[in-house]
Amino acid sequence: MDIYTENRFLCCGEFLGNALRFPFLGFRRKMEEVMKTSDFAYDLPEELIAQDPLADRASSRLLVLDKKTGERAHKNFHEIVHYLRRGDCLVINDTKVIPARLIGQKEGTGGKVEVLLLKRRENNIWETLVKPGKKARPGAEIVFGGGLLRAEVLEVVEEGNRLVKFSYEGIFEEILDQLGQMPLPPYITHELEDRNRYQTVYAAYEGSAAAPTAGLHFTKELLAEIEDMGVSIARVTLHVGLGTFRPVKVEDVAKHHMHTEYYRVTEEAANIINGTKKRGGRVICVGTTSCRTIESAAAADGTVVPGEGDTDIFIYPGYRFKVLDCLITNFHLPESTLLMLVSALAGREQVMAAYQEAVAERYRFFSFGDAMFIY
After folding, report:
1. Where are the alpha helices (DSSP H) in 102-241?
2. Residues 86, 229: contact at Cβ < 8 Å?
3. Where does 20-97+193-374 sit in CATH, by number?
4. What is the reported pTM?
5. What confidence tens digit (pLDDT) does each residue in 192-210 have?
6. Residue partners of 347: CB distance under 8 A and separation at least 6
7. Is 216 helix (H, G, I), strand (E, B) or coil?
């Protein structure tokens, strides 16, 4: 994703097409059972791509899919409570999106430069994606906000990413909040009037370059109602970045490499999840990022181990889930790793049939779109 628009799978802005290549953790199918990226293609009319969030978060539509039978039902999102049970556990990703897109000028020439913050390496050094790359050779300096923030390009790393060092006076987060823009997906052409609509109501820890969009459907009132039902809520953190949205550029799915993303599972969250499993309750992840977090933190016996680190887990059909039982998720882009993860849970044929029905029923797709519940 030029780096902004060349790839329709990217949800973090135009830069994600230059993603890094890292080893991944995933299930490799036997050579004679090659799964193709094209197996996950589908046709989507452009008018079904949601451009704006709904006024009421919980008023989205909800397609319910029974992964065992393939039976489908059409509901409204607030009706999710009818599918939850006392003793279940809802796992939510409490990451917070930062205004990670910066527009600046190259020192000396004044040429426009766009920088997307990906990951803080140390202190004021960040891994970034820059457009155009030819203006961001080592030693180049970029100025933002008339000098309020400056960046020096230190080096070019794999896939063309840049390490840059920022200099400023004051508090970086406050300056970023003043100068940065929310890194909305390139398929969203409307201006976002309220930044908070690209945050979950439970967002707490800054670090994501994109929202965990399944969580956008929840209101504080709905979460309170769910807890009152006797459903536990476990809060985990995964800072959404390249690992989630990097496009699959190879036809053999098993050869795709995921970028690493930071995750954290607290002892409290691990205890809630493990206790739920022991009591026979279901672990229901809100979004693919919550799913990837607990599956990354799971031991071979399915016990979630508290800790933090980087994960490059890649879940696609053939993967055996260690912890997750059910999933609340949005509708994902064709041929994306997210669609592959959903297919690993419910089966590719059933998922693709559900997507075809969602198109026919005029569901709203992608970040600000409608949701699915797979149980």
Report:
1. 172-179, 220-228
2. yes
3. 3.40.1780.10
4. 0.87
5. 999 999 999 999 999 999 9
6. 67, 70, 317
7. helix
